[in-house]
Amino acid sequence: MKIALVGYGKMGHMIEKAALMRGHEVVCTVDPYAKDASCVTAVSEEMLKAIGDSGAEGIIEFSHPASVTNNIFSLVPTGIPLVVGTTGWVDRLEEVRRLVDDTRTAFLYSSNFSVGVNLFYKMVSEAARLMAEFEEYDVAVFESHHNQKADSPSGTGLDIARRIMENLPRKTTLFTDSFTRRPEPSELHLASVRVGSVPGTHTVYFDSAADTIELTHTARTREGFALGAVRALEWLASPGPDGHARIGVYTMNDVFSEV
Ligand SMILES: NC(=O)C1=CN([C@@H]2O[C@H](COP(=O)(O)OP(=O)(O)OC[C@H]3O[C@@H](n4cnc5c(N)ncnc54)[C@H](O)[C@@H]3O)[C@@H](O)[C@H]2O)C=CC1
Ligand SMILES: O=C(O)C1=N[C@H](C(=O)O)C[C@H](O)C1
């Protein structure tokens, strides 16, 4: 498949390697600040023309929280299957969903493309369901990432917290700041630290007066994210179960349910 990359930073370079390893061709790399990008520009008519002229059959976007929404709204109308890994935009998801529906294209997003984290999500959901009956356990989430990360909390941390609140009725409100008061029992605290070169670590704590249960996912490298993003595009660009091109907004749950 001919793939265009929008955002050619740490993840863009890792994704290029993963794509080439799987026999794809990276025909265009777009990034306004990366001097080694084939198209050193931001979202623009020039960028869209470059992608169109490249014959790209799929696009993978890993840019910046401040740029991703503009990129999505520019790239979706091209009709080229689009995979977005950039975090910090899902508050605009419903607008994106409407655009995808109106333009009848294929869009897949995930805050974390690694297989391990998507299995971890299922473990956390089940653990939260178990804990619903044991009120003596409080719960919180902690995430740590490298000191180059531009958003907080992590998209993965937010997804973990959402799954806990979906399955643990006593936790109704997400709190992601520093406390200057005692937490309310109904508040789920999600805390973040930015340090060194940490690829991404997420821990869920279930804590009682008697003991603590910790569930942790530790990413060792970014390779899992990159490979997962390329495999997600392969799936998105493949025909659906009905044999027709996929249309709509998808997540990694859809990929795992079919693969
Ligand atoms: N979904 C997942 O599995 C993962 C998601 N991420 C997310 O991906 C994003 C990027 O992460 P990294 O590659 O580590 O960051 P990075 O900072 O190394 O690379 C981002 C690149 O985007 C470029 N950029 C900025 N504005 C742009 C625009 N308008 N158009 C095109 N490119 C633009 C920057 O110049 C930079 O080269 C972050 O939001 C991060 O949270 C990171 C790893 C895994
Ligand atoms: O910025 C990163 O590096 C990562 N960001 C994603 C997130 O915000 O969850 C995924 C992964 O943890 C790495």
Word description of this protein:
The structure is a single chain. The chain is globular and about 60 Å long. 35% of the residues lie in helices and 22% in strands. Helix 1 crosses helix 7 and helix 5 runs parallel beside helix 6 (155-167). The protein has two domains: 2-113 and 223-257, Rossmann fold (3-Layer(aba) Sandwich); 115-218, Dihydrodipicolinate Reductase, domain 2. The protein has eight helices and eleven strands. It has 259 residues and is an alpha/beta fold. The chain has helices spanning 10-21, 45-53, 68-75, 93-103, 115-131, 155-167, 223-236, 252-258, and strands at residues 2-6, 25-30, 58-61, 82-84, 106-109, 138-145, 173-175, 187-194, 201-207, 212-218, 248-250. The mean pLDDT is 96. Strands 2-1-3-4-5-11 form a six-stranded parallel beta sheet, sandwiched between helices. Strands 7-8-6-9-10 form a five-stranded mixed beta sheet, covered by helices on one side. Keywords: Amino-acid biosynthesis, Cytoplasm, Diaminopimelate biosynthesis, Lysine biosynthesis, NAD, NADP, Oxidoreductase. Residues 116-255 form the Dihydrodipicolinate reductase C-terminal domain. Its main location: cytoplasm. One of its GO terms (biological process) is diaminopimelate biosynthetic process. It is found in: Cytoplasm.
